[in-house]
Amino acid sequence: MKQPPALLAAALAAACAAAQSPSLDDQKPAPAPFALMVGDAAPAMHIAEWLQGESVTSFAPDQTYVVEFWATWCGPCIKNMPHLSELQEQHGDKATVIGVSVWEDDVERVRPFFQKNRDNMRYTVAREALSGDKGRMAEAWMAAAGRRGIPCAFIVDGAKIAWIGHPVEMDQPLAEIVAGEWDLESATRDYARKMARVVAQREIESRLNPLRKDGKTAAAYEVALELGEMNPAAAANAMNLLAWDVVDPEREMPASDADIALAIKIASTARELSGSDDPFVLDTLATALFAGGQIDAAIEVQVRALSLAAPDGQLIKDIRARLKQFRAARAAPDGQ
After folding, report:
1. Least enclosed by CB within 10 Å: which of 44, 128, 167, 313?
2. What are phi and psi of 106, to 5 degrees?
3. Taking the complete model, does pTM exceed 0.70, yes or no?
């Protein structure tokens, strides 16, 4: 089975910036990584249709808003809708939750979707306006903030962006903002540091992906090690894919012994970075060990992968099938 690549962007992690030199040059504010950042004025609302709730044409200075971006095709967005409803009910008139549909292939699907799911969408719901084939909200908010995935939420307070992130992580920030306890100055600094690292990480990934595509596994591994210093989870994902490219049972050309040894090294590093609890990584490592003739070690790792895999889905089926293959190979007489 060709393992599905995880979205590296879904793995972005915050990290503290290095201490700054006290020189005058270093005290100058660094350029903003993206056009829209925490602390900036909130962009305008560009809405084609308000499906539920009162229209919001501007942000009142004494009101808190949550602008959350979703799409009809987005599973995580749909899963998060009851959570948004709970937040709206929890904060009442102190906060206005607005779900804005973006990135739709067919905007005509939005209203029927809302009508079908309105029991889970107990907050203001809207569809973005378009300019040609581009969504005006997606461009002014998501693209400007460097955001590539949904759901994504922006908390607006005093007409300024107070917080940006995944909506499952906004309960505490929203509570503090509504209560008037949010330190916007500190949040602005922390977010700028985080996004500077995101930009650096994306630059590394832009070098890694072409190397992987060209089959330059060793060079790609070196780049992935750079990524590991910044974001271990993203690096583990990348290394898992590199190793799997080598040992994938569906690979057309058999891998050389040297390539298999490299795949074992890469998958072992991925295991360390992931904390030994990622069944995809463990499955890759077990497959590499088996390809390298280390059958007992492959079985041990695959048993661990089996214990961690979700009880349904294709992965656990593949893990079981490969574990059966490994055990049959160990039981077979030498040379068979």
Report:
1. 313
2. -140, 105
3. no
